[in-house]
Design brief:
single chain; about 180 residues; mainly alpha; Rna Polymerase Sigma Factor, Chain: A; Arc Repressor Mutant, subunit A; 2 domains; about 0% strand; globular; RNA_pol_sigma-70-like
């Protein structure tokens, strides 16, 4: 969605235009879901995170000043929502959460799906600060400066976290 189109939809949504709000949310949902899936590690939790993020976004839309893209604002809400959940629960996704879906896979897809599961499990076991930069950089293909802006940290910190995250993830994947 072009920036000027987003601005127009935002103006209408803030005035109470439900169709404009729905269009904005529809545009954000797929990207937020991909990030949520890699942060959370499973589909159900990712769906919950996106739903909670969308609700928070709707409630906070009036406060959005438009200094950044709406996706950046929504991304920040998603990450903060995820952090709150981690603090509340303090438990990570286990591979057993994926076993039911493995039984339904055709044999030719099992290897590819197993690799994806190993990657998701490895990501889920990373500390949140490392997982967030990995997902942003590789899944979202975001530049380091944008990640730094979204997370409110210096670009050098993003670089060092990315380096550490790659090393941690590679080590965990080799252990399997």
């Amino acid at each position: 969605m072009a920036n000027h189109e987003e601005t127009g939809l935002l103006r209408r949504a803030k005035r109470g235009d439900r169709s404009a709000l729905e269009e904005l949310l529809r545009g954000l949902e797929p990207r937020l879901f991909r990030v949520a899936l890699f942060l959370a590690g499973n589909r159900e939790e990712a769906l919950d995170l996106v739903q909670e993020t969308m609700l928070a976004l709707c409630l906070r839309l009036a406060a959005f000043r438009g200094e950044a893209r709406l996706y950046t604002y929504a991304y920040r809400i998603l990450v903060n929502t995820f952090r709150k959940r981690l603090r509340r629960r303090r438990s990570m996704v286990q591979l057993a959460d994926y076993l039911p879906c493995l039984r339904r896979l055709p044999p030719e897809r099992l290897d590819r799906e197993s690799e994806e599961i190993r990657l998701r499990e490895g990501l889920a076991r990373l500390p949140e600060r490392y997982r967030t930069v990995l997902v942003s950089h590789y899944l979202e293909d975001s530049p380091l400066a944008e990640i730094a802006s979204r997370l409110g940290i210096p670009e050098g910190t993003v670089k060092s976290r990315l380096y550490k995250a790659r090393r941690l993830l590679a080590g965990r994947l080799r252990k399997k």
